[in-house]
């Protein structure tokens, strides 16, 4: 081969190699995944900084990969910090991108320089539109993740793979699977006659509740109890009257607001309700996140075990203290003191009228 041809051949080989390197590099540093809404999103293979779009996503991310958190939708309050790892307590607040009261702006999102944005909850058209819009404007990949309780084990495994946290994800997924499936078989064996009528009281006056099929009462449905507000129809959160509650006459009242929990026991308007007469009023624990609702995230897994224990003590004789200690170690990465367990469980297991 003439010298000039050999030289040209070498140049061509080098040129082809040079053009091939960016493609190969791109292949190695990103990958395409499909989220719960069926969207195909290209994400980095190595993800170290994640921004949660709303509270359920914050909780999911903290339980699975706390080191990837770059901040909070809402900074933890003093009482909540005691139930969280030291390393995340003082992370900055950036607001929420999704849901009611969204407060984050896209300039602030860019300032935090996330590798990925995740949202957990509904994956309907409204949220798809939001995710697509934010992704287009910021060029940051945005994943939508199904927030229903039944999908929790698979969500942990999938997100664990994406965030290189599969080992931790598997432990959390197994716990979720046992809570949702093994406990369900035990609950299914409880006779209908032993299943209480329950009213879920939200707000300072207790007259806000969740209808049949509401994500806010998913825990109640999981433990096989009767949601008395289902008589008012299907939907989400709604206002009801005291007359409706009196007519439903629930056996048990689950309370979200501490003020209402304190007042209802001596309120003459509620005095004739069976749950009040028999002191079966339970305040759902809320530190660092509520066990029953608000937000409706993976924090509700402990709520299922708690409520099964409270409503069916004969069928669920396990120590609620041990259950609480185990959950907080596995999901919230903290070792609870006996005093902390007392503070969580005292109002959640009994309610006695004042003398």
SSE map:
Blueprint: H1 3-29, E1 30-34, E2 40-44, E3 50-52, H2 55-64, H3 78-81, H4 106-112, E4 116-121, H5 125-138, E5 142-146, H6 152-162, H7 166-188, E6 197-201, E7 208-210, H8 218-222, E8 226-227, E9 237-239, H9 242-248, E10 252-255, H10 258-264, H11 274-277, E11 281-283, H12 300-311, H13 320-332, H14 338-349
Parallel strand pairs: 3-4, 4-5, 6-8, 6-10, 10-11
Antiparallel strand pairs: 1-2, 7-9
Helix pairs in contact: 6-7, 7-12, 12-13
Description:
- With 355 residues, the protein is α/β, with parallel strands linked by helices.
- It folds into two domains: 146 residues, Nitrogenase molybdenum iron protein domain (Rossmann fold, 3-Layer(aba) Sandwich), CATH 3.40.50.1980; 158 residues, Rossmann fold.
- 44% of the residues lie in helices and 12% in strands.
- It contains 14 helices and eleven strands.
- The strands form four sheets. The chain has a four-stranded parallel β-sheet with strand order 8-6-10-11. The protein has a three-stranded parallel β-sheet with strand order 3-4-5, sandwiched between helices. Strands 1-2 form a two-stranded antiparallel sheet.
- A hairpin with a 5-residue loop joins strand 1 and strand 2.
- The radius of gyration is 25 Å and the shape is globular.
- The N and C termini lie far apart (107 Å).
- About 3% of the residues have low confidence.
């Amino acid at each position: 081969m003439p010298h000039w041809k050999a030289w040209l051949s070498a140049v061509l080989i080098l040129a082809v190699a040079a053009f091939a390197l960016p493609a190969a590099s791109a292949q190695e540093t990103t990958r395409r995944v499909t989220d719960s809404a069926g969207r195909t999103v290209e994400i980095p293979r190595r993800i170290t900084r994640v921004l949660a779009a709303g509270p359920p996503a914050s909780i999911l991310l903290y339980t699975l990969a706390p080191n990837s958190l770059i901040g909070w939708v809402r900074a933890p309050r003093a009482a909540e910090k005691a139930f969280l790892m030291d390393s995340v307590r003082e992370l900055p607040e950036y607001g929420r991108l999704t849901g009611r009261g969204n407060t984050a702006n896209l300039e602030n999102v860019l300032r935090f320089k996330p590798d990925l944005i995740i949202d957990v909850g509904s994956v309907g058209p409204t949220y798809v539109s939001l995710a697509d819009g934010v992704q287009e404007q910021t060029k940051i990949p945005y994943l939508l993740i199904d927030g229903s309780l039944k999908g929790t084990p698979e969500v942990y495994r999938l997100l664990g793979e994406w965030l290189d946290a599969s080992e931790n994800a598997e432990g959390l997924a197994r716990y979720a699977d046992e809570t949702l499936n093994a406990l369900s078989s035990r609950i299914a064996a409880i006779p209908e006659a032993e299943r209480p009528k329950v009213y879920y009281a939200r707000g300072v006056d207790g007259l806000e509740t969740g209808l049949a099929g509401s994500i806010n009462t998913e825990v109640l449905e999981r433990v096989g109890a009767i949601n008395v507000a289902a008589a008012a129809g299907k939907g989400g959160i709604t206002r009801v009257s005291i007359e409706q509650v009196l007519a439903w006459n629930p056996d048990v009242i689950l309370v979200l607001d501490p003020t209402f929990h304190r007042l209802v026991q001596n309120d003459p308007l509620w005095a004739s309700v069976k749950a009040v007469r028999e002191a079966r009023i339970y305040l759902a624990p809320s530190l660092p996140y509520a066990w029953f609702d608000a937000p409706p995230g993976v924090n509700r897994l402990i709520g299922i075990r708690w409520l099964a224990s409270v409503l069916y003590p004969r069928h669920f004789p396990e120590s609620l203290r041990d259950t609480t200690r185990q959950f907080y170690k596995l999901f919230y990465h903290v070792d609870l003191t006996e005093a902390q367990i007392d503070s969580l469980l005292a109002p959640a297991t009994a309610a006695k009228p004042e003398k």
